[in-house]
Amino acid sequence: MSIVEFRNVTKTFGPVTVLRDVDLSIQRGEVVVLIGPSGSGKSTLLRCINALETIDGGDLVVDGISVREKRTRIRHLRQEAGMVFQQFNLFPQLTALENVAFGPRHVRGTHRAEALVQAEVLLAKVGLGERGHHYPAELSGGQQQRVAIARALAVKPKLMLFDEPTSALDPELRQEVLRVMQSLAEEGMTMIVVTHEIGFARKVGTRLIFMEGGKITVDGDPAALLDNPENPRLREFLHHVH
Amino acid sequence: MDFDWSVVVDALPALLGGAKLTVLIAAAGLVGGTLVGTVAGFARAFGNRLLNALALVYVELIRGTPIVVQVMFIYFALPMLAHIRITPLSAAIATIVINAGAYIAEIVRGALLSVNKGLKEAGLALGLPTWKVLVFVIGPIALRRMIPPLGNQFIISLKDTSLFIVIGVGELTREGQEIMASNFRAVEIWTAVAILYLIMTSALTLALRFTEKRMRIL
């Protein structure tokens, strides 16, 4: 059974149709890289998966739960789909450690001391074992994004959604974030990544999706598509990104 | 003319009694005003259409009328309308509650809405219910941002209690007025009254500065 299933999904913002009859099925263990020009609907598609955006037509089922179900079920769905944002969105009043422990404490009801111990393990995993007691404002962008990844992982999701995780970072800080994402993929985490990092798509992605005008127009193996883009719009897009 | 210190010394017990009442009215009024303002501010920021409209009418009604008119209405008009008896002191406290509440509602609303929308999304994305996001994510950040404008409002309300001279509640200004009316020592009495207000507002300012230092404003 697929972990994410779009069936004829439509999404509009006022008069603008952002997603047009999208059908998409994603299996466990896939690392799907979503690319496309700005305004093509890739971030919206991602945000529909954990119901940060509501869909207007069709159905979208994530780990057996439809985004159209009632609120308590949606919260359950969100716990299974961790989200990493372009702007990190760490809680500024909490230390890195407290940020990571936040989800388990308030969502899973884990005891504070236990949540902090787990948070330390996760921070070490993203290479920030020494930084736990720093506040977000005291960390670099790359470090903040790695804390944000640890925060999402702390709730033990079944899949991870990344919304342009490196777009707000300087080039030299991107690699540290991409390395963490790569090791996560190597552990078998199901991932859906909106990004412009073509190198990451080739090296880590198991599937590449190109979106345009609210539709998926190309869907296939990253290496094959990047080496030989038959779709003229994809070819043009790659030309601009490189 | 000579500044006669003995006038101040003689007047001091009565003035301190008035100052005590001023503190009581301000403190009780601001505790209530903060509660009312917080509820109205949340209604303005996150309430449904009805709650939002109710809060908006309240804020506009109070901000649009002078506090002296408000206390006159509560002390003289309300008892006639509702057939209740109301003491000057409770009218004074009620006026501060209602008046400060309206301004505090706008402070609370502004602070809540100033918190980056991404933080709310981050909380929701973890699977938290909305109320938990408000209490644990947005609330603590907004609270820190509220402190400077809240301090401003507290000082304004403290000084506004002097207007309750119009309903005869024996707060500091009223006490000063009464002593002055019997001994005509305007310079000594109003200097003493002004200094007592300054002492009260300075204490409030210091307390706020201390709170601000302890909490990092984010």
Helix fraction of chain A?
Answer: 40-55%
Strand content of chain A: 15-25%
Q: What class would the helix/strand composition of chain B place it in?
A: mainly alpha
Terminal Cα span of chain B: 53 Å
Q: Give the overall shape of chain B.
A: flat
CATH class of chain A: Alpha Beta
CA-based shape of chain A: globular
- Provide the CATH superfamily of chain B: MetI-like
State the end-to-end CA separation of chain A.
36 Å
Q: Largest interface, per-chain counts?
A: A-B, 26 and 20 residues
- Sheet-strand content of chain B, in percent, reads under 5%
Radius of gyration of chain A: 18 Å
Low confidence ranges of chain A: none
Q: What's the CATH architecture of chain A? A: 3-Layer(aba) Sandwich
Total individual domains of chain A: 1
Largest β sheet strand count, sense and barrel closure of chain B: none
How many helices of chain B?
8
Query: Which fold does the CATH topology of chain B refer to?
Result: MetI-like fold
Number of domains of chain B: 1
What secondary-structure arrangement, pairings included, does this model have?
The complex is a heterodimer of chains A (242) and B (218).
Chain A lengths: L3 E10 L2 E11 L4 E5 L6 H8 L7 E6 L2 E2 L4 H10 E4 L11 H13 L3 H14 L15 H14 L4 E5 L7 H16 L3 E5 L3 H6 L3 E6 L2 E6 L1 H6 L4 H10 L1
Parallel strand pairs in A: 3-8, 3-9, 6-7, 7-8
Antiparallel strand pairs in A: 1-2, 1-4, 4-5, 9-10
Helix pairs in contact in A: 3-4, 3-5, 4-5, 5-6
Chain B lengths: L4 H42 L2 H15 L3 H16 L5 H27 L2 H9 L4 H31 L11 H12 L2 H29 L4
